[in-house]
Amino acid sequence: MIACVDGLTGFPKALETVFPKTQVQLCIVHMVRNSVAFVPWQQRKQVCADLKAIYSAATESESEFNLELFAEKWDKQYPSISKSWRSHWANIIPFFAFPPEIRRAIYTTNAIESMNSNLRKVIKSQQIFPSDAAAFKLVYLAMRNISKKWTMPIRDWKPALNRFAILFEDRLHV
Fold it and tell me: Rounded to whole angstroms, how far apart are CA atoms 142 and 34?
């Protein structure tokens, strides 16, 4: 239904090809991190606050207006930030079609990245596998251990699930 991606080139197109009804959303956390990568520490808080006005806007048009305000304020020092947001705009705006409870559930890929990072650590320690079955067993056991740490539910998941059931009633059967 919705795929939150981190900006890998070609990934949104691949998703749309395999799952044509999927709405692709860029990870807002990655957009902000990439935006402030070359901003000095002294200005990061201010730049991040102005970026927050863009992605936390109530509507797409309000967000676009806030992007213009951001550009007016920061383009002399950091023109690549507003340029990046504009070039990725098509994969940022799906976010604004959803109510706040869904936005909080889909704005980042950090949970997936954390899981992948933990899997990489486990796999890296075992460089050679005697068989495919051994590799699958290691990944299975690692996933079982990783999932024990998942004690916190997704924030506002129940209202989000309720909205998903309404928005995607033909594809989501709760």
Answer: 30
Q: Is 22 left (phi over 0), alpha (psi -120 to 50) or beta?
A: beta
**Residue 5's beta-bridge partner residues?**
26
Residue 34: phi and psi, rounded to 5, are -65, -35
Is residue 25 classed exposed, middle or buried when 0-12, 13-18 and 19+ CB atoms within 10 A define those classes?
A: buried
- Please write the tens of the pLDDT for every residue from 108-167: 666 677 777 788 888 888 778 888 898 889 889 888 888 887 777 777 778 878 888 888
In this prediction, residue 14 carries a pLDDT of 87
Distance CA 129, CA 146 (A): 21
Cβ–Cβ under 8 Å, residues 107 and 94: no
Return the number of other C-beta atoms located less than 10 Å from residue 69's C-beta. Answer: 14
Q: Please give the C-alpha separations between residue 39 and each of 42, 47, 72, 140, in angstroms, as whole numbers.
A: 8, 8, 16, 41
Q: Could you identify the residue written with the tokens 């044509």?
A: 20
Going along 8-131, which residue ranges are E strands?
A: 23-26
